Amino acid sequence: MTTSNTNVPGPKPIPVLGNLLEMGANPLRFFETCARTYGPVVKLELEKGRDTYLLSRPEHVQFVLTNTQKLFVKGYQRDRILSLVLGNGLVTSEGSFWLRQRRLSQPAFHQHRIEGYAAVMSAYAQRMLAGWRKDEVRDVHADMMRCTMEIVGKTLFDVDLYDPGEGSNEVAESMDRVFREYVKQYASVVRRLLETVPFPLPLPGNARLKRSVEKLDRIVYGIIERRREENRDRGDLLSMLLQARDDDGTGMTGEQLRDEAMTLFLAGHETTANVLSWTLYALARHPAAGEVLAAELDRVLEGREPAFADIPRLPYTQAVIKESMRLYPPVWFISREPVEDVSIDGYRLPAGCEVALSQWVMHRHPDHFADPQSFRPDRWSPSFEKSLPAYVYFPFGAGPRVCIGSGFAMTEATLLLASIAQTYRFEPADGREAVLEPSITLRPRYGIRLRAIRRR
Ligand code: HEM
User: What are the transmembrane regions (predicted)?
Assistant: First the structure.
């Protein structure tokens, strides 16, 4: 028999605000505490008229993610900010429209394409390091954001974002402005409350974001137009998207290309920057792991610049990245909406509710990870990976909507970390811990200041 959903355990809501204030104070701790206190299915009131259910069994993750498209939708269209910035691109679209776009975009992420992008990744890492001075304190998050943005600019648009000769600083600046405005609004709990108002409010933040997006749109449409006229494969993602044809021979419209380009730019640069920033932060606090990493890099690379072919020979480098994404998952929760009532562990979750799965909660679960709060890259042995139940560790999601850029991201993170850690080791610049900001991604709120000590 299915239990009524009113019986689902959860923290007591207060009038009007539900559980929003508790969550707003520290969403990560709130989700973790709820899962530990109330069990694998927790009911939360985070939106007016729509309950949220936090699920934390691996079977729940499997059920929800593999049935997205059939029993669940992403429901992002109700999110005004994401819709304004990303339009109807791969992250936000649904159903048959999404499927077509995914099929058209997939070839841009084939292994041989990524191999081509790898050379750009390594070269841009070297260019970044050339600007670092011996033993100085740096905000490594700012460095990683800039470097991954340059890499996306080059691999996506074939534009060198920071080469003043190309006159393309405008793209970088506009992207940056949109991004900052978007993060500022996204992290706000007040925004979640205002989302319940059924029309866009004339708030200054909304107007600023809209103006920035309009400016960026003009630039992106300009690039697309010029590239259409040029009609040649430059080896970048945009070339692939421009060439992509459906079975009936139709390609993407200008608007679809704009939405996909914007989506890939945003989805593809901050996530990887976060992984690298948190990795350097963890290494600075765990010098022994840093030494094992440096020894692997010295042994395998013998001082050379890392290349795509080196990646399989860098297992510890990859373990460091996996462990960093376990503790600091760049996407810390995934949300879905059931299209019909579904039954989970005997509870009925109604159509239209929000179902939340949290990498933060699952990746730190003591049932699955020994000493779960500690940074221990050596846990990622082949036997451990084999024994880890499926759908416990899912930094890139799973099912049909799994990250299309996971191969791109792992290649980029490995090559950048190898380049950086080959030349530098890190020490905390002061005794302060970095502040986690669980916005749409898990970012360091005030950056990450580390002393970069030159090794070679
Ligand atoms: C470490 C870096 C990254 C992480 C942790 C990450 C994580 C994720 C996750 C969890 C999802 C699924 C979201 C959901 O199911 O609701 C996703 C989707 C997506 N990611 Fe990534 N991502 C990363 C890098 C990238 C890169 C480099 C790109 C592109 C260049 C990219 C493009 C996308 C796109 C387009 C989607 C939507 C796919 C679809 O629905 O068909 N991501 N990513």
Answer: none
Answer yes or no: CATH 3.20.20.20 is held by domain 1-86+333-363.
no
- pLDDT digits over 81-124, tens only? 788 888 999 999 999 999 999 998 888 899 998 999 999 999 99
Q: Ligand 1 pocket, 395 CB below 6 A?
A: yes
Its CATH architecture, for the domain 87-331+364-454, is Orthogonal Bundle (1.10)
Q: Do residues 406 and 399 make contact, with C-beta atoms less than 8 angstroms apart?
A: no
Residues of the chain with CATH 3.30.43.20: 1-86+333-363
CA 263–ligand 1 middle distance (angstroms):
10
The distance between the two most distant Cα atoms of the chain, rounded to a whole number of Å, is 69
Q: What is the pLDDT of residues 39-81, one digit of tens each?
A: 999 999 988 889 999 999 999 999 999 999 899 999 987 777 7
- Whole-angstrom Cα distance, residue 68 to residue 94? 10
Task: Give this prediction's pTM.
Answer: 0.93
Region(s) of the chain under CATH 1.10.630.10: 87-331+364-454
Is residue 65 classed exposed, middle or buried when 0-12, 13-18 and 19+ CB atoms within 10 A define those classes?
Answer: buried
CA 298 to ligand 1 center in whole angstroms: 32
Question: Residue 353 annotated as binding?
Answer: no
